[in-house]
Amino acid sequence: MSALAAILAERGHSVSGSDPRSGPVVDRLRQLGVRVFREQNAATISAIRSGTSHAPLVVTSTAVPETNPELMEARRVGLSICHRSDVLAALINAQASIAVAGSHGKTTTSTLIATLLAGTGHDPTAVIGGVVPAFGSNGRHGQGRLLVAEADESDGSLVKFRPRLGVLTNVELDHTDHYGDLDALITTLNRFAGGSARLLANRDCPILREHFEAAHWWSIESSQGVDFAAIALEERGDGTRAAFYEGGDLVGQLELPLPGRHNLSNATAALAACRLEGVPFADLAEAVANLRPPGRRFDFRGDWNGRLVVDDYAHHPSEVEATLRMARLMLESGRSPLPSVPQRVLAVFQPHRYSRTAQFLEGFAEALTQADVVLLAPLYAAGESPIEGVDSQALGATIRSLTPGLEVLVASSLQDLAHQVARVSAAGDLVLAMGAGDVNGLWERLAELTDDARELVA
């Protein structure tokens, strides 16, 4: 929503909205002339209407409940209401665009595409779900011909998009609150693919290979039978050196400053998308050095008493597994993008949604066994009703059953979680907080610990 607000404001539209929280995103919107209300109530709609002779268009999202007082007032007075996906579709469909969809990696891949285009002089417009470090924002109005958008599949609304190039990173069951099974997700993503003028897809994903037809494929496993490939020559904790192929032919080498095979795949997709848009490989090979992951993707928050605190959005077993595997690579290779090489990995995980936790309980448990210590935050419901027997205690019990010797702690609150981190961690540890809920506030809670709590780490 904030990305759309920023772009519309930069394009000269009068934009208003509400957010009870302050922060850099809201501050930037105000700088762009967006009128931001602190309270969400019916009076907001009255205030907006009184300031214009035109009936405002109300834009909402799936995350906004029908009981929201602003939405209820907008309906009462008869204002036109549309979904955020309708506004995004209007932007995507109005110009040459690249839309990135898939179960995992779409925020990172769209961030890398936008960064590469900006770094090679193409000045793209970008609408992305995370903050792009090169822009300092998740939304940017560029002067170039291309628009890069993240196409979220969580509510199925991406079927409205008609991009010039659709990108599919991978497919795996998620968002079980919306999709009854994997077939339903495949059907929706095939509708997105069918609406794309061309489709670029990941050949390494077995579900994509079996159920999708793409004009172009990429791989990090083989250079044969695909249009684009990046084959790792050296994998380190601070990056990857890879050979890049087009049509099976070697075109050059890359030094990717992002560790992990999942990031190599994301970067390969980004490079392939740019090449399909005519960006010279030599320019891209130079721009790769400036690639950075989006906010909340292995995001270093700071050093707390010798502990390296990192925030990550991983909230699916595959994402947790990939993030922990990348962390272990840092330990094993003795190389890290962090200020120092960590000695142990403390996985701090917050389950997100009862439905997802119930569906993937075993998968989460298996992924978390890669850590040296596991600390579990209380489950973040995201508005869902509880499911009996599904909570952080159940996940902790499952992890212990798989790896009896692994230390697993379950916190009663986020404040208790911070105290547990202080008690069981040691200098040199990587404290890796993962989840899509409010576990990203761990850094602030550690910083606010009392002197008595700090004595635990002395």
Any overview of this molecule?
The chain has 458 residues and is an alpha/beta fold. The protein folds into 3 domains: 2-79, Rossmann fold (3-Layer(aba) Sandwich); 86-290, UDP-N-acetylmuramoyl-L-alanine:D-glutamate ligase (3-Layer(aba) Sandwich), CATH 3.40.1190.10; 299-457, Mur ligase, C-terminal domain (Protein-Tyrosine Phosphatase, Chain A, Alpha-Beta Complex). It contains 17 helices and 20 strands. It has helices at residues 2-10, 24-31, 42-50, 69-76, 84-94, 106-119, 182-195, 206-211, 261-276, 281-287, 317-333, 354-359, 361-368, 392-402, 414-424, 442-447, 451-454, and strands at residues 16-18, 35-37, 58-60, 81-83, 96-101, 125-132, 137-140, 146-150, 165-168, 198-202, 216-219, 228-236, 239-246, 249-256, 299-304, 307-312, 344-349, 373-376, 407-410, 429-434. A 10-stranded mixed β-sheet has the order 7-6-8-5-9-10-11-12-13-14, with helices on both faces. Strands 15-16-20-17-18-19 form a 6-stranded mixed β-sheet, sandwiched between helices. The two termini are 44 Å apart.
Question: How would you summarize what this structure contains?
Answer:
The protein is of the alpha/beta class. It folds into 3 domains: 2-79, Rossmann fold; 86-290, UDP-N-acetylmuramoyl-L-alanine:D-glutamate ligase, CATH 3.40.1190; 299-457, Alpha-Beta Complex (Protein-Tyrosine Phosphatase, Chain A), CATH 3.90.190.
| Number of self-contained structural domains | 3
CATH superfamily membership of the largest domain, which one? Answer: Mur-like, catalytic domain
Approximately what portion of the residues adopt beta-strand conformation? 15-25%
What does the oligomeric state look like here? single chain
Average per-residue pLDDT, rounded, comes to 96
**Radius of gyration, rounded?**
22 Å
Spatial strand arrangement across the major sheet: 7-6-8-5-9-10-11-12-13-14
